[in-house]
Structure to design on (181 residues):
């Protein structure tokens, strides 16, 4: 498309914007100016606040307990398989098949227990994160208002490609969070 064709397409847009009263000065009048921006590393908030450390410790304890229970069940199942292999020659084909079916059923149950434990851990972690996020958000709202910050972003590799360390409010948030408890 040539330059004239591009200009011809743009002209109706400019004319339409002018016709409804949008000029460069009025088109942006309703958008507030952002004067100060901050970033917060919520992973640090989770790991460095007393509430976050306490919650993470409880989660880790639950993981250790669940893992130990699942490992015991897996060891029991492995022993049962070994026992069946040792007795396989002495069992009838029907009895061997029945016991194999039972062990396969137990293995499926163990896999379901693993999946259930992982889902529970993920749900418990989400509850902890949500609780800390809600409190951190309330604390940050007060901090931002006091410091004239218009926008606070959560710092992560997926959300913020780069942020000058000078606008990182994480340490101040952690201190204010602790005081709010």
């Amino acid at each position: 498309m040539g330059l004239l064709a591009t200009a011809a397409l743009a002209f109706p847009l400019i004319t339409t914007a002018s016709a409804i009263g949008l000029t460069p000065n009025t088109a942006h009048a309703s958008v507030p100016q952002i004067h100060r921006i901050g970033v917060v590393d919520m992973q640090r908030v989770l790991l460095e606040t007393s509430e976050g450390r306490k919650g993470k410790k409880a989660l880790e304890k639950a993981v250790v307990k669940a893992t130990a229970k699942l490992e015991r069940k897996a060891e029991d199942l492995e022993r049962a398989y070994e026992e069946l292999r040792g007795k396989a020659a002495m069992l009838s084909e029907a009895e061997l098949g029945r016991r194999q079916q039972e062990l396969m059923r137990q293995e499926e149950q163990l896999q379901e227990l693993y999946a259930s434990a992982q889902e529970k851990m993920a749900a418990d972690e989400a509850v902890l994160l949500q609780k800390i996020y809600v409190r951190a958000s309330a604390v940050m709202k007060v901090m931002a208002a006091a410091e004239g910050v218009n926008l606070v972003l959560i710092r992560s590799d997926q959300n913020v490609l780069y942020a000058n360390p000078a606008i990182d409010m994480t340490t101040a948030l952690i201190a204010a969070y602790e005081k709010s408890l």
Notes: DSSP finds six helices and two strands in the chain.
